[in-house]
Amino acid sequence: MGRTLAALMSVFAVATTASSTVEPAARIRTGEGPCGAASGFGSVWVAVYGAGQVVRIDPKRTRITKRIRVAKGACPITTGGGSVWVANDRSNLLYRIDPVHARVTRRIPVPDWPAHLAFAFGSLWVSGYETGEVARIDPRAARVTRVYRTGGNPSGIAAAGDYLWLTFGRGTTIGRLDTVTGEVAQFPLGHVAPGFLESIGGALWTTTGDGYALRIDSANGSVVASVPVRGTPAQPAAAPDGTIWVAEKERDTITRIDPATNAVVDVSPAGNGALAVAVARGSMWVTSFAGSDVWRFRVK
User: Fold this and answer.
1) 286, 299 contact by CB (below 8 A)
2) Mean pLDDT in consecutive groups of 10 residues from the start of the chain, 300 residues
3) FRET pair for 15, CA 20 to 30 Å: which of 31, 70, 125, 172?
């Protein structure tokens, strides 16, 4: 196993009486270690860490239509700027994929151990976990235009307001990066090892290594709610019905949270090592990082 696979599996309770209300509508075999997931260009795109591929899934027919060879170690993936982008922690490369012809068109060196990707302010952003850096990519020119020294181990990244926010995977804070000055302000979370970070409904959501989903005020970095998620929570995502879904990779579950009350709605079984979540065609697509498939859940 590579660094990301080993770390994500090893690093990243509220009891609920509600019965599970979400069940998989389909399971799509991808190959070993489906990691990051994203939607765009009418497809679901999954980076398969062990197989070293990006698979394109037709969400209407629920089947793989293309396998694109990159390299073992592919995980964070996103879409934007007319392309699909996937980073690799073994090669420390960012791959740009043409979604029409389904082929790699550029390989871009990025900081050591690219952990997460995000589009914001007309650029693609890559967090360099080992080097304590965040790289800004011009998606048209497909090149790094600036590298910000953040310190720590930047992991999740998301835009909110005029700032880029980031978590520090070996720390206890969330950071706010001023993309003009390069200054980073940090705010305490009261929890350890924050990982994934998403901007949802005007708030920031992250998950932590000590088993919480946190809702954060993007105006001042304060924690609004701490929702226990039994196990090791991974990516949060907004579902079409307004609930927040949190994949959990230790106990292989999906926890649904009502953002109106910040309370757990229910907990449902998911794939082995449930990690990343993509939203497409009224469904939630959840990768099984410790397995070899993607689960599709239809949102009721």
Assistant:
1) no
2) 41 37 93 98 98 98 98 98 98 98 98 98 98 98 98 98 97 98 98 98 97 98 98 97 97 98 97 98 97 94
3) 172
- Separation between Cα atoms, residue 116 and residue 85, nearest integer Å: 11
Q: CATH second-level architecture of 3-298?
A: 7 Propeller (2.130)
Helix, coil or strand: residue 203: strand
Task: Let me know the angle formed at the C-alpha of 112 by 236 and 234, rounded to the nearest 5 degrees.
Answer: 15
Global pTM exceeds 0.90: yes
Residue among 1, 23, 18, 11 nearest 253 (CA)? 23
Answer yes or no: are the C-beta atoms of 85 and 45 closer than 8 Å: no
Q: Which of 234, 299, 243, 244 is nearest to 271 (CA)?
A: 234
For tokens 């994203």, what's the residue?
Answer: 38
Among candidates 235, 243, 233, 236, which has minimal Cα distance to 300?
A: 243
Q: Do residues 171 and 203 touch, judged by C-beta distance below 8 A?
A: no
Reference 137, options 127, 146, 129; nearest CA is 146
Owner of token pair 């993007």: 218
| Domain ranges across the chain | 3-298
